[in-house]
Amino acid sequence: MGGLKMEVRVLRYFNEIVREGNISGAAQVLHISQPALSRQMKELENELGVTLFERGHRQIKLTQEGSYLFDRAQEITTLVDRTTDQLQKKAVVSGVINIGAGESRAVQPVMACIEHIMAKFPQIRLNLVSGDSEFLRHQLDTGLIEFAILMGHENLIEYNTMPLSGVNRWGIVIAADSPLAQKKAITPEDLVGQPLMTSGQTMRQDTFRQWAGMALNHFNFVGQYNLVFNAALLAKTGACAVMTYEGLIKTQAEDNLVFRPLTPALVDQNILVWRKDNRLPNVGNIFIKEMKEITHDQN
């Protein structure tokens, strides 16, 4: 595919206009004339056959098509920059480790490995992305990250995989004065009728459904979260219980929160994954080598 719409330069112009909120401000940042920038955008719209901006007197507003292009343009320019950076790196010991992970204490050994690499090779940098499994797989598949640490049970046939040591134990975080706080562990029946928040990913897991059994039909889900910190603030008010991994939320006396594990125990393993069809940069190969050595030593 060719033409103006595929030029990275024009996508950078478009991104800058969106960030600045108007063409005149973007023109100053880009050091080009406002008429020239306006002409570029008009030509881009003509070639794509869509309207990207709702133009006002002072500010521009993106159309639905413009919002879609902005999302894709950011991914494209990021990928181009990263690819260029990797190609221009002459030294094996420089570059960026791009890795995504969910929230889990069991990720700590990976962070220890990265600390070891950065100590050996000071030019190496880390780009750490947080999110749930669906978001991280999208980041992997579009090339925005090279590695992800996924949790739970998923079909990973298209990825290289490396199981990590340690497991994530599921439980609930609740206000310390909640009746459930008096229990040492939480059964599915304990949660029947209780206001409950959990992650969207958990709701889709077969292991969670198997644990809950028929009681799942009587759970009172009042919402879901993708990162647990803010959900825990709601639990602190007593409004609901929050399902989460052990150790992610402070549950000391002054925090007015307690963690109670599920019973029968429900655990998820952490798995480091990277695409089979993705040729890793040198720094990525260093990371995998170090991780394999750590895994071998632990076994």
From TrEMBL:
Where is it found, in Gene Ontology cellular component terms?
Answer: cytosol
Q: Which Gene Ontology molecular-function terms are recorded?
A: DNA binding; DNA-binding transcription factor activity
PROSITE patterns per record: HTH_LYSR
HTH lysR-type domain location: 6-63
**Could you tell me the keywords of this UniProt record?**
DNA-binding, Transcription, Transcription regulation
One Pfam assignment: HTH_1
- Family as reported in the entry's similarity comment: Belongs to the LysR transcriptional regulatory family.
Protein name, please?
Answer: Transcriptional regulator, LysR family
Write down the species: Limosilactobacillus panis DSM 6035
